[in-house]
Specification:
single chain, Fructose-1,6-Bisphosphatase, Chain A, domain 1, 2 domains, about 40% helix, alpha+beta, 7-stranded mixed sheet, D-Maltodextrin-Binding Protein, domain 2, globular, 6-stranded mixed sheet
Length: about 280
């Protein structure tokens, strides 16, 4: 099977696996478990990741896998999968339809690389395959330089450390005052997908895991967006592969259209500093 056929088969697999997510979402079942880090997991998270890992084992047996619900799997091909079966589990558990299945296969080049972010409730599928651009349900998407409705919307996704909560809340307020609206929607993968489609103008994340942001970052780049990482006390524009960016958890990242990127990263500065000056 050719790589583009495997990609199409993966989308079909994700959509089929998402039936269980919709059934849980539409039910009165709120069964969940709380993990050691304070996050929650449902049976659907585990079921979907099992399905995706089986797809990888069958079609890409030499690839590495980094997933949320099971141990990492080493590989020899040079490609790495980042799998989050339900990103935004808090929303999903509370029957809020802002959540996503997030999957990326990342290599050193565009060849053989792709990403999918699928909202199982609304059935919107954001995808990017090699260098073919980003799509939403097969319609091309792009980052846009001009804000919809005359104001920018910037969102924040953060980890669970105490300083991150303080900094995140302060930045949401500051974004609203400076640019038009600040928000925290609770699903990094879907927020990045929305950024790739021009629905969100900028997105900042810190303290999360590679499987939270890998697929979304690939979509943003495919849609013409700029990506910066905060390292060494400064924002640095990412020009290397998304695979390299996602080689570690906990990256501090910002995405937007290139036209306003420097203005926004200059305003943000060191995200941690917002917990000191505003905490």
């Amino acid at each position: 099977m050719a790589i583009h056929e495997q990609f199409a088969a993966l989308i079909r697999t994700v959509e089929a696996a998402s039936v269980s997510a919709r059934e849980y979402f539409d039910s009165n079942d709120f069964t969940n478990e709380q993990k050691q880090d304070g996050s929650v997991v449902t049976k659907v998270d585990q079921e979907i990741e099992t399905v995706i890992r089986e797809f990888v084992r069958t079609n890409f047996p030499n690839d590495s896998v980094v997933g949320e619900e099971a141990a990492d799997t080493p590989g020899t091909s040079g490609y790495v999968w980042h799998i989050d079966p339900i990103d935004g589990t808090d929303n999903f558990l509370r029957k809020i339809p802002f959540c996503a299945v997030s999957i990326a296969r990342l290599g050193d080049t565009e060849e053989g690389s792709f990403a999918i972010v699928h909202n199982p409730i609304t059935r919107h599928t954001f995808s990017a395959f090699e260098s073919a651009g980003a799509k939403e349900n097969n319609h091309p998407t792009h980052c846009y330089p001009e804000p919809l409705g005359g104001r920018y919307v910037l969102a924040v996704g953060r980890g669970r450390e105490p300083w991150m909560k303080v900094a995140g809340n302060a930045l949401v307020a500051a974004f609203g005052n400076e640019f038009g609206k600040g928000a925290a929607y609770g699903s990094t993968a879907l927020e990045l997908a929305y950024a790739s489609a021009g629905r969100i103008d900028g997105f900042l994340t810190f303290g999360l895991s590679s499987y939270d942001y890998a697929a979304g970052l690939y979509l943003v780049r495919a849609a013409g967006g700029a990506i910066s990482v905060f390292e060494g006390g400064e924002w640095q524009l990412v020009t290397h592969s998304i695979k390299d960016v996602c080689a570690a958890h906990g990256r501090t990242l910002f995405v937007s259209h290139p036209a306003m990127h420097q203005r926004m990263t200059s305003f943000i500065g060191d995200p941690r500093a917002w917990s000191v000056t505003n905490g």
